[in-house]
Amino acid sequence: MKLTRAPSAPARVLFCCLMIVEAMPWTTVNYSTTPGSRPPTSKAASSVQSQKQQRQHSGRGFPPLQSTRAPENTASDVSSSPDDGINDICSSDGDVIVLADDPDFVKPDRDARKYRVIKLKENNLKVLLVSDQMAQGAVGTEAAAVHVQAGHFDDTIPGLAHFHEHMLFLGTEKYPKENDYENYLSQYGGGSSNAYTDMEDTNYYFSITTPNEDPTKTSEGLTGALDRLAQFFIKPNFDPDAVDRETNAIDSEYVNGKTSDSWRNYQALKSFANQDHPFGKFGCGNLETLTAKGKPKLLEELQNFWDTYYQSYNLRLSVVGHASLDALQKTVQETFGAVPFSEGIPRYEQAIQANLEKKQKTTNAKSSDLIFTREGAVYGSIAFGPEQLGMIRSIVPLLEARSIKVHFAVPPLDDPELRDSKPYRVLSHLLGHESPGSLHALLNEEGYLTGLSSGIGIDSSDFSLFSITMSLTPKGMANKDKVLDLLFQWVALIRDTGPDQLRLYHEELRQMSTINFRFRENGNPTDFCSNAAQALFDEYQDPKLLLSGTSMTSQFDPKVVEAFLLRMIPDNALIVVTNSDLKEELQSAELSEKGWSVEPYYGAPHKQEVMSENQIQIWQSPPDFDRRLHIPELNAYIPDDFSLRCEENSSSAPQEDAADRSVISVPPVPIVDSDKMRLWHKMDTYWRVPKAFIRLSIMTPDVYASPKSMTYNRIFQRILNDDLNSFVYDASLAGCNYRVSCTPTGYRISVSGYSQKLSFLLDTLTARMFSLIEELKAGDAALKDKFDQARDGLCRETKNYRLDSPYEVANYNSRLLLEESVWYIDNYIDLMEGESAEKQPLTMAECAEAAEDSISKRIKCEALCMGNIAPHEARTVGDMVSERFLASSSVLSDVETPSFRSLKLPTREEAMGIFGPVTSDRSIPLIYADMAYSSSEENSAVELILQVGSELEMGYRGLAIFDLITHIAYNSAYNRLRTNEQLGYIVSVVPRKTAGNAWSMTVIVQSSVATPDQLEERMEAWLESFRDELINMTPAEYASEANAVAAQLLETDTKLSQEVSTFWGEILNTEGMTANLRTPAFDRLQKLSEELSVEEMDGEEDESNESDSPSKSSDVTGAILKDRVLSFFDKYFTASSPNRRAMSSRLYSQRFKKEFEDIREQPGVVSKFSDIKHLKQYLSSWPTAPYWRIDNSTVTSAGPFR
Question: Of 469, 898, 903, 1110, whose Cβ has the fewest other Cβ atoms within 10 Å?
């Protein structure tokens, strides 16, 4: 599903990756991770920002509700957009045909990887090989992906393709165990796998983390992983015994989506399409659709699906590894060479060729007109034709939301007429522009808009939808007719713009794409493989241009642009209005009485209205235009200076540095260190790209001083970010990015991009912060709407949070109890629309005062300048920060520095002292119980928190053992609670860090089939069985798992932004510390890994090597680790341990209301914020000192600190 999304969104985020995000933006930082994803090690979880973001997702799943293509005005890692023709010169090398080799590849300037595209003669399989050229001994990610041209458009049973994707993971003839694949991957740096089913495609991928031990030989980990993946396409089992469990898993996934407006709206859109076209199908599937014809028929169709579509010519493979291209090629031949031979043309191409002649004969177009030959050429029908267009559809969402989406039916993006000139790029650029005079600016000025995006929303082999999405305020929705009038005026204005001006915009975008490609750094290998495997299907693209396709836009073609623009008319549009205000209309009468229908699978109420001829005429040819609308100026911020600062410094040896990766590990140094600011700097000499990063953290106790202060600062942040568009929008389009965020500790400012324009961007941004405050103080009338809009938007998002997934609400609820100082969600709502808002309304003047106090009164700054920035330029940044923020501020003392703590959960004995002896019979003495806010929520959730304690008490060794346990626990819990017991689609075990450096192991289950108390009982049973698993593991298995965690900790940065995040994370780790603890531990990950780096030994190990003294890696054995793991587990996690500190956060679905009412009155159960406030009076807090200063303490040698 390729749906439009804002340009800042990632290129692909799978639906099955359900992130536990920070519960609310004003609460203290949470480091929980994805339910169903392998938990990160402390490397990521102990930093304020995740340092090594890995593509690790839950289960198998349906694809994203965001675009799977890169933003239209940027270059992606891999493109499926070709130049004309295919490489005419291929070489044959034994059993392979080399279609393109590394010397011929068009690559970014600093791309050191080597590439080769081959075709295996054994079976016609086309493969991309990538050797990442890591230094020997370096640790990094190896990955692979297989793309299949088959998706839910090909279903003979609703959900078959999705179900088929799930079943491939459950065993093959060579590797029959269901969990063999995942268990194998987990041994290599916490490796993981996943897949997604799209409309016409299915993609399987995995990643592992391994050291580069021998560049002439493919690593053992990658060889084994490739062999296991290959078996999916050689001989899958399709075990009948797994069918019932996996159909239940599909059904759980479906039930989870029923409370998601994204899924509801998407399926509603499919129901609006021509039902003769496969876009109208129900692709997810559920228990009813999959089992309607019985298990034998399902198994028969499952095998038929594999036999029909999983043919070698219909597959593409991409591999990224540490080894040489020759070594990787040999391994691919040895593994995927066993895929059965087949030959043919990829089936969509075959269908298009078969229909092309017929289409050309029947078209009514004049010979001079363009013929989009691929449109409607695959399935014999049009997804959105005259009967589906010229319509206005209204949908009622579950959440409070208001938006208008205008979908125009256009040809597919790979139509021959669109391939080179890509007219949709320049149109998307102009329609979504946010500069003064744009539609965005005008609607924003009127107080109608909260966001606008445009671009290709859905793209298939024979149709696309070009979509313009406007997120509206209540005022905007009340004036939706005017909004649509202005939209079509804007479209007409662009349509009437002469080709000469459009050509200039086209060239501007082409120039920026070329620059971005030239200086593009390597991204996530897993994402790369997933995209590359799909791009290999483009038979019209020269393989050597595989990396540069999106950047190689050809010359402007006015005829193509004109033909595309002619599609953007009202009678070729489907307008979808999503409006939560229509709920009242639904409640006031029977649905059918006012033309309402309900989409049968996800239940979205909707109705239709045919556009009148008069309305179509007005929108197609507006009689007049709003004078405020005008086409944007050309971008003056496109960089043209790409000089490198490291080459300007004659004392450095850039060529030596560029070849020596060890310079990456050299940390930044403080070039300013005062009582108000510490400024760190490191000039890049390795990555050698003309980009720089500036990070600024302004710490103050004023932001989180009260719910009102936090609310005011959040409102100011929203007004600022909205306002900055008129100042720096062009800079953001030209590769310079900024972000201003408000956290409980203060403000964070981030500026990054091409270094030529970066200082100007920072200067403009920081100056505007203060000038905006003055305008708010003065009561600027133009800002009143923006203030009201920001307040209302924040209030809407806050209220909508109660409708988030049950596991997310349970996570937020537990934080209320775990953290010492945290405001409650109702506090914020009351300030914005409750009783407090009526008695003491929020004002612009008070908002300005709160923001001013937070950025200029009592503050302390940490700053980092890294990349293509010289020391004197970094000092200039420091001077700017000092002048703007510090000149009038007072010194922030240690006592005033914001510091957040976590509370100690009570042990069972302590709980008896608080609640009485009745809690002695419960293994979990403390329960937070809550009821799902939505009556339509079918899922319940339980988050079981097993508190381990503070970093200070655990030290390096304790944290390393904790990481190891959670690493092993993930697969164990997933296999038992999800795969075997089928409790729910979302199951995970993650390490969780709460305020003040306290850690817990968290077990998460979201279920539609069990009550929360039943889920708890199964969680406790799993913990018992997990201990048995730990006992039965051999020392060699412990060594293997520990080395996997150590490898993940030591994974090498692959681009400048990752290096910046690594060092900035360590600097932020010291925020709030006293002066003698503020030295960042830049070697922290190395020391942590040493506790887990084990020499794997043959034979039995001496189990008497345990020592209480700090160990070096050579002292650690698998037997020692086993003892330490069991000792740690028995102390903190076993139900009978007197030291166990456990709580459960339960969220009951509405159908379990009786069970909720029964439990909430029991001792040890809290269900209101007032209960929490009362309980906290009995709890003590964990120490906040960091663990990395234990062995080389910086505290005074006098007194008890030693």
Answer: 1110
How far is the CA of 109 from the CAs of 75, 517, 518, 752, 869, in angstroms? 14, 8, 5, 20, 19
Tell me the chain's radius of gyration from C-alpha atoms: 30
What is the rounded CA–CA span in Å between residue 710 and residue 733?
Answer: 31
Give the pair of three-digit tokens for residue 185: 């991957």
Amino acid at 594: K
Q: Which of 72, 142, 165, 1090 is catalytic?
A: 165
737 SS3 class: strand
- Distances from the Cα of 126 to the Cαs of 196, 224, 526, 729, in angstroms? 20, 20, 18, 42
Q: What is the rounded distance in angstroms from the CA atom of residue 1119 to the CA atom of residue 1140?
A: 25
Residue (of 178, 195, 180) closest to 225 by Cα position: 180
Nearest by Cα to 503 from 567, 425, 434: 425
Look at the block and give the residue holding tokens 């108000």.
676
Query: Are the CB atoms for 202 and 196 separated by under 8 Å?
Result: yes
Contacts of 677 (CB under 8 A, 6+ apart): 860, 861, 862, 863, 878, 881, 882, 886
d(CA 423, CA 109): 27
DSSP 216-266: TS--HHHHHHHHHHHGGGT-B---HHHHHHHHHHHHHHHHHHTT-HHHHHH
- Record the tokens describing residue 168, joined without a space: 């491939």
What is the C-alpha to C-alpha distance for residues 774 and 771, in angstroms, rounded to an integer? 5
Q: Rounded to an integer, what distance in angstroms lies between the CA atom of residue 758 and that of residue 738?
A: 10
What pLDDT is recorded for position 604? 95
CA distance 518 to 1121: 47
Q: Which residues have a Cβ under 8 Å from the Cβ of 965 and sit 6 or more positions away?
A: 1001, 1030, 1125, 1128, 1129, 1133
Q: Return d(Cα 443, Cα 1067) in angstroms, integer.
A: 41
Residues 682 and 669: beta-carbon distance below 8 Å: yes
The pLDDT assigned to 56 comes to 31
Return the pLDDT at 1097.
54
Closest to 266 (Cα-Cα) out of 2, 585, 493: 2
Starting at the earlier edge strand, list the strands of the sheet with 464-472: 449-459, 464-472, 402-410, 573-579, 391-395, 605-610, 597-598
Q: Which tokens is 231 given? A: 């078996």
* Residue with tokens 């040493």, as numbered in its chain: 1090
Q: Show the DSSP H helices in 1033-1117 as ranges.
A: 1035-1049, 1056-1068, 1084-1090
Q: CA-CA distance, 445 to 453, in Å (whole number)? A: 17
Low-confidence ranges of the chain (pLDDT < 70): 1-93, 347, 351-352, 354-370, 550-551, 553, 588-593, 649-659, 1096-1114, 1189-1202
pLDDT of residue 548: 87
Q: At what angle do helices 1169-1176 and 806-818 cross, to 10 degrees?
A: 30
CA distance 123 to 309: 15
Q: What is the pTM of this model?
A: 0.88
pLDDT of residue 136: 83
Tell me the three state secondary structure of residue 490: helix
Q: Cα dist. 384→375, 397, 441, 462, 1128 in Å? A: 11, 23, 31, 11, 61
Asked if 165 is an active-site residue, the reply is: yes
137 alpha carbon, distance to own chain's centre: 30
**Both tokens of residue 672?**
């300013």
CA atoms within 13 A on the CB side of 544: 15
Residue 371 confidence (pLDDT): 73
Which residues fall within 8 angstroms of residue 609, CB to CB, at 6 or more apart?
391, 392, 393, 394
Collapse the DSSP code of 317 into the 3-class scheme (helix H, G, I; strand E, B; otherwise coil) and give the result. Answer: strand
Task: Please tell me the predicted confidence (pLDDT) of residue 550.
Answer: 65
CB neighbour list of residue 1098: distance below 8 Å, 6 or more residues apart: none
Through-space distance between the first and last CA atoms of the chain, rounded to whole angstroms: 60
From CA 431, how far away is CA 491, in angstroms rounded? Answer: 7
- According to DSSP, residue 109 is labeled T
Q: Are 60 and 165 in contact (CB under 8 A)?
A: yes
Q: Are 302 and 310 in contact (CB under 8 A)?
A: no
